[in-house]
Design a protein that fits this description.
Layout (H helix, E strand, L loop, with lengths): L1 E6 L10 E2 L3 H12 L3 E6 L5 H11 L3 E5 L6 H14 L4 E5 L1 H5 L1 H8 L5 E3 L3 H11 L4 H5 L4 E3 L2 E2 L26 E2 L5 E4 L2 E3 L9 H4 L4 E3 L2 H10 L4 E4 L8 H14 L4 E6 L1 H6 L1 H10 L1 E9 L3 H6 L6 H13 L3 E8 L5 H13 L3 E6 L7 H5 L25 H19 L1 H7 L1 H9 L4 H5 L3 H4 L2 H7 L38 H10 L6
Parallel strand pairs: 1-3, 1-4, 4-5, 5-6, 10-13, 13-14, 14-15, 15-16, 16-17
Antiparallel strand pairs: 2-9, 6-7, 7-8, 11-12
Helix pairs in contact: 1-6, 2-3, 9-10, 10-12, 15-17, 17-22
Length: 514
């Protein structure tokens, strides 16, 4: 069969800070191609809807698969699915990905017949089975693990057999030089591990994967790195180097092959402090940038988001990362209940620390524990506003004032790290990028004010709404595991952690699910 994989357009923050290659879609493509199917990809972060429709008309795929990792992309995907059916009525249209897995039935309903199937769970395992089932029709499609159709829901989704089974089909993307992450321009993405053994209340990574944690082999990772042309590499793991010996094994393999890259990763402060030696090793290998999910600058905030690491440990982790010479970005979650005093406190703190401070908004998502326990009623059901940049819960301040305070706080980042100050501080790097024809980072230095505008953000709440997210159930004080997981949990048996690391995880998590 001819399969066209589609990544939807950019979200608010990707218009300024980054544009990442669609690694998940490349893995889906690799699985389909390995099964003998013809595959093409298009990324609407860097191409247009018109480009997509022209490709559909010219190539006439048998199936189109939309990647839906973010709720905010759902209206775009539904509209494109309907346009696809108008252009090519016989084309089978499916949607998969992280967010799609949690709202599968709603997506089918929104599609009004234009979406034939939503695939829950890991797509690499399901897509070959789905493509084989399509010619046989209804019952065969419904029998695919993870498939949700108008006829109902099939068997539970399956995990891919091994993370080593596939190499991303990077050759299928037409504009690889368009992907960047800050001054890592261009930047590729790579996976070292998958899943997360913790259970933060605001996150759905652990609920999607059933609290599993799996590793790619160092040999496979190195082969992947050797195929990457870009100098910059983003390690997409939810928490990097949970298992210290795995981080050392990868690093030693990289060192033996003489691979030279600049790396960006995300991790937790407590993991950083526990596994200092592996991060020191990686700083010598080329680790240049790190994202730490601090989430709050007070103990009360950490408790709210179920981060058992103490405030002192978070600040200790920042000090250690600074000592390595690594550039740090940290995330603070702004709650809609914040008032002017709270915003002012965070602004002052952000000015005093050298790190890049990113502000996101507390947003209950389907698949998170807070979606089921958050007692505050949603103020909007517009998918497009579920992007952690808009307030979807009631705000203590009038909404216009909340956005003014939020943008004023985010301007700290703009003054410290973007615009002319960033250009002066990174003049040598910028010159090298321009000489190589890389302009993504430079072009985005001055986009902040045109994207993060309080008046425009307020206007977003008044746009006509065609598709609404289903309401969460009545809030409860406790949550059962079967209400959360997409992939059935297998407990410790599905976590690649040694006994000491497993105890560390248990000591630093607060939930009760297994």
């Amino acid at each position: 069969m001819k399969l066209l994989g589609v990544h939807p357009g950019p979200l608010m923050y990707t218009k300024v800070f980054l544009r990442l290659e669609p690694l998940g879609l490349e893995l889906i493509a690799a699985a389909a191609r390995q099964a003998g199917h013809q595959v093409r990809l298009i990324d609407l972060q860097v191409e247009s809807h018109e480009d997509y429709l022209r490709m559909v008309a010219a190539w006439r795929p048998d199936a189109v698969a939309f990647s839906c990792n973010y709720l905010a992309n759902i209206p775009e995907i539904v509209d494109l699915a309907k346009a696809t059916k108008r252009s090519l009525e016989t084309c089978f249209v499916c949607v998969g990905g992280h967010s799609a897995s949690f709202v599968a039935s709603a997506i089918l309903k929104h599609g009004d017949g234009a979406i034939d199937c939503v695939l829950k769970g890991e797509g690499e395992a399901a897509i070959p089975l789905l493509l084989d089932a399509i010619p046989m029709g209804g019952k065969a499609i419904s029998a695919v693990p993870g498939a949700v159709t108008s006829d109902g829901e099939g068997p539970l989704p399956s995990f891919v057999h091994s993370l080593d089974d596939l190499q991303p089909a990077r050759d299928l993307l037409r504009h690889r030089r368009k992907y960047f992450l800050g001054i890592l321009d261009p930047c590729a993405s790579i996976e070292f591990s998958r899943g997360c053994p913790w259970d933060c209340s605001f996150c759905s990574a652990w609920t999607f994967y059933g609290r599993s944690y799996r590793l790619r082999s160092p040999e496979r990772i190195v082969r992947d790195l050797e195929s990457i042309r870009e100098d910059g590499v983003f390690i997409v793991d939810d928490v990097a180097f949970i298992q210290e010996r795995h981080g050392f094994a990868i690093g030693e393999a990289i060192l033996s092959r003489g691979i030279k890259k600049n790396y960006y990763l995300e991790t937790r402060g407590d993991v950083l402090l526990r596994n200092k030696k592996v991060f020191e090793f990686w700083a010598r290998l080329g680790l240049r940038y790190m994202f730490l999910g601090v989430e709050a600058i007070d103990e009360e905030g950490l408790k709210r988001y179920r981060k058992r690491i103490s405030l002192g440990k978070n600040f200790e982790a920042l000090e250690f990362a600074r000592s390595l010479g690594i550039s740090i970005a940290i995330n603070i979650i702004a709650d809609p209940d914040w008032d002017e005093k709270r915003f002012a406190l965070v602004r002052q703190w952000a000015l005093e620390v050298p790190e890049v401070v990113n502000i996101s908004i507390n947003t209950p998502y389907p698949g998170t524990e807070s979606w089921l326990t958050e007692a505050r009623q949603l103020e909007t059901r517009d998918y497009r506003l579920f992007d952690i940049q808009h307030a979807v819960l009631p705000t203590r301040l009038p909404l216009a004032d909340f956005y003014r305070e939020l943008v004023a706080t985010q301007q700290v980042l703009n003054r410290k790290h973007l615009g002319w100050s960033a250009l002066r501080g990174a003049a040598g790097i910028v010159t090298k990028l321009l000489l190589r024809g890389q302009t993504n980072f430079v072009r985005n230095l001055w986009k902040f004010n045109s994207v993060y505008d309080a008046a425009l953000m307020l206007e977003d709440h008044h746009r006509p709404v065609a598709y609404e997210i289903p309401l969460p159930p009545a809030a409860t004080g406790s949550v059962k595991a079967d209400q959360l997981y997409i992939h059935k949990t297998r407990g410790r048996a599905h976590r690649a952690t040694d006994d000491a690391t497993e105890r560390f995880v248990d000591d630093t998590r607060v939930g009760t699910v297994s």
